Amino acid sequence: MLPRTNRIPRKEFPSYPLRGIRVSSPLFSATIYPREHGVRFSVVVSKKTAATAVVRNKIRRRLYAAVDPLIKTFTRGATIVLYPNINAEKT
């Protein structure tokens, strides 16, 4: 699990998806919003991606574990929201 300082609080969650930079890959897409300092992440797994809560939480935990070592490599501040695709469950 990410430290609390690197997670996006619910009241600060971006509700304006058109203002961010959208990046896609075969396993997930991400929206990146610029920020003054610090990096914050969130993973959003929809029911369309995984039907059961157990699988959604497993995907979320795996993505947080993959992102955790990369946090220190960021030189600029950003708020990043990751949206896994259906194929993310299979890997």
Distance between the termini: 19 Å
**What is the CA-based Rg, rounded?**
13 Å
Proportion of residues in helical segments: 10-25%
Low-confidence parts: none
Instruction: Tell me the number of strands.
Output: 4
Give the neighbour order of strands across the main sheet. Answer: 1-2-4-3
- Give the overall pLDDT as a whole number: 87
Q: Which structural class do you get from the secondary structure elements? A: alpha+beta
Report the biggest beta sheet as strand number plus sense, adding barrel if it closes: 4 strands, mixed
The number of helical segments is 1
Query: How large is the share of residues in beta strands?
Result: 25-35%
Helix-strand blueprint:
Layout: E1 21-24, E2 28-35, E3 39-43, H1 53-67, E4 77-84
